[in-house]
Structure formats: C-alpha cells, structure tokens
Amino acid sequence: MNYIEFVFGINLICIFTTVYLSNRDGIMKKRKLRINGHSHLLPYPEEIPDFMKEKEIFWVDKDQKFMFQKDWKRPVTDSSFFLNEKLEWMDKYNIDHAVVLNLSQLYGNGLRLEEMKQALRFQNDFNAKVQHEHPSKFTCGFVVHPGYGRGALWEMERCVEELGLQLLCLPTHYMDTIGQWRCIFDEENEPIFELASKYNLAVEIHPYDGEKFIKLENTAWRFHLIWMLAQCADAYHFLTLNGYAFKYPGMRVCFAHGGQLAQMNLGRRIQGFDGRPDLFEGKEHPRKSVAHPNIFFDTLVHDTGSLSLLVKNQTSKQVVIGLDDPYPLGEMDSEKQSSYPGKILDLAMEEDILTRKQCDAIWEDNVLQWLFGNDENKKEILRNKILNS
Fold it and tell me: From start to end of 46-164, where are the E strands?
C-alpha cells in the first residue's frame, strides 16, 4: 500500500465514522439555523401606491433617504431597509431567514376607515408578495386594526386563507372608533384572539404611537427609549390579567424588545395584585402566566443584565432572537456601538448566562416554536425550504 492509498483509506474511515455517528438511532444531525425573529422591510418608493402619498399616509422619497407621513419624516439609516440590500446584509451575517413584521407606521391609528383599510391591505399584500417570492428567506406578518370591528376578522381570514400568512402583527395600543386609546388586550378584542387561536397563529406585539396619547413633549427620543418599553409592559399586564394564554391556547404571543420593563416590573405587579385584590376582581394572578409556553420575548434588550433577568423570569425556552433590523435601535453592525447581529447572545455565553445549546435554540428552535407551536410538519417544511435554497 502506497502513501496515497493509505491517506485515502483513512479519509474513508473518517467519513464512514461521521456518517454512522450522525445517523445513529436514525437521527441525522442538521446544521443549526439562524432565524431572526424581529425584522422590518420598506417597500421601494415605486412600490408604494400613489394614494399613500396623496393622502399623506406613508411614502418614501425617490432617493430612498427618508420615509414620510403627514408632519413627520425619519431618515432611512441603512440600505438594508430594502429587499435586495436586506438579502445582501443577511448573507453577510449568515442569517438564514427573517421574520418580517409590519411597519409600525402602518398600524392605521387615526386614519379614516376607508383610508385605514386601503393602507393595511397594501401592507399585507406587500408582505405576502415578499414571502411568496422568497419563501426560504422570509416569513412575513400581517396587520389588522381592532377598531375595524368585523372587518378586522375578514382581513385575518383573507390573509391566512388567501395569502398564506401565519403571523398576526398587533400594536400594544390602538385608537378606537370614538378616539379613545385602548390596550390591545382589551376584552373587546377577544374575537380577534379567538380567531388567532383557531388559525394557530403566531402573534407579535409591538409598541408605537406613544406620543399620540402620552401627553409629553417629544424630545430626546423619549418615546422610543422609554415609553415603548412601558407600552409593552402595559400590554403584558393585561394579557396576563385576562389569562389569554390559557383562554386562547392556539395563539402564541411574542413581545418586542424583550418586554423589557415587564421583566423589571413583575414583582411590583405581584405585590399589587396580592395587596389590593379588590382592584383585580375576576382577573388572573400575574404569576400564573410567567414562563407560559405560549408567551415569548425577543432578545432586543441591549445589555446582558436585562437579558439575564428575562431568562431568569421566563426561562430561555421563551426567548427568541430579535435584531429589529435595520433600525438604529436594532442589533446592527455599528463601529460606534461595537455591535453586530447576534452580539448579545455571544456576550451571554461569555458571561455564562446562556449555553451554546440555549443560544442555538434561541436562534432556531424557539423561533419555530413561536411561529408554529407544536405543528412539527410546518417546522420541518420551513427548515427544508431554508436548507435546500
């Protein structure tokens, strides 16, 4: 036997050993996926219908530098706001798949009924088109407005049965038909949750529009840095008090930005419930929903101390990766912030907050559990789409 034959033989032994170990007990190990559970996507300017700009609902300038609404504009801070650039960004950071939420500017609050219906339908059709054309790269959400009444249920039916969407995006708060601001987990919205449970939907709860009902001057980005987190805490408060995770077992709710203040506020809510039971007649104890298997939180809390508290409260199984790209408060590539996508999980491993196995689950298994619950067939279908693309 010459040297080449010897080396070839050793390589064959290594290959057969690897295949045997991988297939032992009939289980083939697959590479772990990186699925971003919180992403956003802007339409290109030419994809936005004329009526959106004419009625000052939402538009993007032709140079793709700003997004606009009436009396409001915001800079487009990264090219990955748009589809082709988003795909390049995902490839650069080895992100296999992204969950695309609706744009917060298109919740429809304050719009007249017909304008709101048209704006939300545009958003849902756009997201459905992105998912249909790039099924291995994107799972996209759809939005309804609770103030739309029966029409919200019709739009849910259309989005699920005709467009094939499985993620319902809802705001933490919305304006009803008489101009009153309400929490999304108001009892009036139970028909929406009942239908979401029937359809086995994932539900994303995301804050926005705080400056419209919190009477403070909008300075120093306070509504994004402080009040968005308070809005999530308020929504979580009523989700748990109303026991909706138990009442509607088919829907799985994820809170944006880690429900950050909800984690810090848990003890105060428990003490308040125990100390003033007269204020909570007919409500469920806050402790009952802690770490519930149908309540999830994303990782976008910006520091390992907050992440540690989230994991301690809810367990790592209820945590999904959320980059909130491409917004500047997302986990983006930034030299100033020495940041990159997935940094907080790397730091959590370095500080022994999470293990590699737990982080892998946060990137893949937990996201799939939120999206599909116990439907293993749908999980496998998406895995195969991603792996075979």
Answer: 59-60, 66-69, 72-75, 97-100, 138-143
DSSP conformation letters of 275-290? H-GGGGTTPPPGGGGT
Q: Which two tokens stand for residue 253?
A: 């709710």
Q: How far apart are CA 303 and CA 284, in angstroms?
A: 31
Cα–Cα distance, 351 to 116 (Å, whole number)? 47
Per-residue pLDDT of the chain (389 residues; tens, 9 = 90+): 443 343 334 443 343 344 334 444 444 467 899 999 999 999 999 999 999 999 999 999 999 999 999 999 999 999 999 999 999 999 999 999 999 999 999 999 999 999 999 999 999 999 999 999 999 999 999 999 999 889 999 999 999 999 999 999 999 999 998 999 999 999 999 999 999 999 999 999 999 999 999 999 999 999 999 999 999 999 999 999 999 999 999 999 999 999 999 999 999 999 999 999 999 999 999 999 999 999 999 999 999 999 999 999 999 999 999 999 999 999 999 998 889 999 999 999 999 999 999 999 999 999 999 999 999 999 999 999 999 98
Burial 304-326 (b: 16+ CB within 10 A, else e): bebbbbbbebbebbbbbbbbbbb
Residue 349 has, within 13 A of its CA and on its CB side, a CA count of 11
CA distances from 76 to 62, 142, 234, 267, 328 (A): 12, 22, 29, 39, 10
Are the C-beta atoms of 156 and 199 separated by less than 8 Å? yes
Q: Measuring CA to CA, which residue among 170, 166, 171, 157 is closest to residue 200?
A: 166
Task: Point out which residues pair with 204 in neighbouring strands.
Answer: 169, 254
Q: What is the residue type of 241?
A: L
Give the residue extent of every domain in the chain.
37-387
Nearest to 28 by CA among 384, 385, 335: 384
Instruction: Say which residue the tokens 């559970």 belong to.
Output: 37
What CATH homologous superfamily does 37-387 map to? Metal-dependent hydrolases (3.20.20.140)
245 and 292 in contact (C-beta within 8 Å)? yes
Amino acid at residue number 343: K
What pTM was estimated for this model as a whole?
A: 0.92
For residue 43, give the DSSP letter.
P
Q: Which residue has the tokens 């979401």?
A: 196
d(CA 87, CA 120): 24
